[in-house]
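Appendix B. Extra example for self-study. Work through it before the problem class; the solution is given directly after the inputs so you can check yourself.
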Amino acid sequence: MSIEVYVIYGLAILLLLISFLKDKNKTKKGLMKAGKSFLKLMPVLIPLFLFVGILLAVITPAFISSILGEESGFLGYVIGMSVGSITFMSPFVAYPLGQELLLNGAAYPQVAGFLVTLMSVGLVYFAMESKFFNKKAAIYRNLISFLGAVVVVLVVLVVYS
Amino acid sequence: MMTFIKKNKFLVLSIILLIVLTIVDIRLTYTALENSGKQILSMLMIVPPIFVLIGLFDVWIPRETIITLMGEGSKGRGMILAFLLGAFSAGPTLIAFPLAMLMLKKGAKYSNVIFFLMVWSSLKLPIVFYQITTLGLQFSMIINVTMLIVFIISALLVDKIFTKEEKEQFVETANQYSK
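Solution. Structure tokens for the complete assembly:
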């Protein structure tokens, strides 16, 4: 388990204690709200994470670096960015993966495109994001992030050539 | 039957994938299930304290505070705050969605909320040094700086792209979501 988990638990417990000492009723109300949104989200999240877990069994780092190699060219970008767009991965996980890919022989521009889409474009969660905001908002955020990835690739290409 | 599939498309997809994997190589099925188990467990570990924090935030922070800090009149300060909140937080991007809803409900401007979401997903200040040591200064800076510029521009364009009615609708949905 990573440090961030401990920090968040510590913070939640500390603030909960302070809140409880200050106002019992308000704290109760806050916890009820927390519980309700938790229960609302779980039926959506659990199948999603099941799906992502299965995908990750097929799409392993070795598999990804094999398609993102130096000679992979344009197809390497397309596949890398498509695979990266499937799901979200937090930067805490994505960057170590990026390093592993580079060490396994993947090329910088392809890895850059893959990493950026991996962190910021999550098509698996598109339906959920549309429900929270609306379709247009979900398209806008994902599209901008994808365009951002294209710009990053171009900059990397220029700088590293 | 159709509505069940529509409502549970990821469950159905997962089952189909698992069947295919079993036919191809049963060891892949085990790895897949182990992966899913790990994913779900780590999600179940990190989500409860975040929801407690969201709940407390909801009852303790008055709407007026958020309006002043991140609302319509907040200008650059609202954006800086949105950046800091996104960049210093931890947890999967999914968790940022409920938080974003709460910000909207409390009166934060939509452009600040979407900026917060974008920063959360891909710019993390606490690991910037780690990034530099593993990927090199140049490579990490290209990614971080380019994405920051793209995000700032797209946040500034929000008011041109979304109508007032659409933005009001977001707040309405947010209100319904965390009643």
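Self-check: The two ends of chain B are 32 Å apart (CA to CA). If your reasoning did not lead you there, revisit section 3.
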